[in-house]
Design a protein that fits this description.
The protein is mainly beta and 193 residues long. The protein is 2% helix and 51% strand. It has one helix and 20 strands. Strands 2, 4, 6, 7, 9, 10, 12, 13, 15, 16, 19 and 20 form a twelve-stranded mixed β-sheet that branches. Strands 1-3-5-8-11-14-17-18 form an eight-stranded mixed β-sheet, with no helix packed on it. The longest helix has 4 residues. The protein starts with 6 loop residues before the first strand and ends with a strand.
Length: 193
Amino acid sequence: RIEKDAWFLGTGLTIENGVLKGAGDAQSYSFFMGDEDHSSVTLRNLTCLGGFNFYNTTADIYDCSIKLVKGYNAIWADEASDVTIHSGLYDGTNRDQGHGIIGASANSTLNILGGVFLSNSTTMLTSTWEAGASCDGISVKGGTFNVNVADFVECVEKKNVDPVIVNEHQSVLAANCTVTEANGLYTVRQNLD
């Protein structure tokens, strides 16, 4: 059990079956990974109050449960990271901010293959606070969302202090995928034809 911000470095790390809690009652990330040298990690079966931040890291995430209360994203792929979410629950419904709960910087990739994603906003995913904002590195191939896939990205560019939305509602649905809606939830599935 880790009850303050944890910062890890290295390759081939696996963390599983535990509880992570961000400092300041989840106002921060519960887990940081990476530095100038490339890192890699597999996270499995973790319960977290506060999200994950990856910097120059390859990460695979399975069956984690993240609950957000304040600020920060559930998953943020920063600075040349390659993050794949395979499964889990990412809940931002009680969060005090309304921007996306999952995000990536301009030179990172974020692949969503599965999981349940809940946002208190009409935006689910946010890409970059950097110049040249683009959502090209985000790909959704699976998962269930409480926001329609056609509406869940905002690409923002930070100018001075205020963010500017430069491409709201850019599609991140991968090729050969379909979206179905049932009871207010949108499920993405890959067509394997």
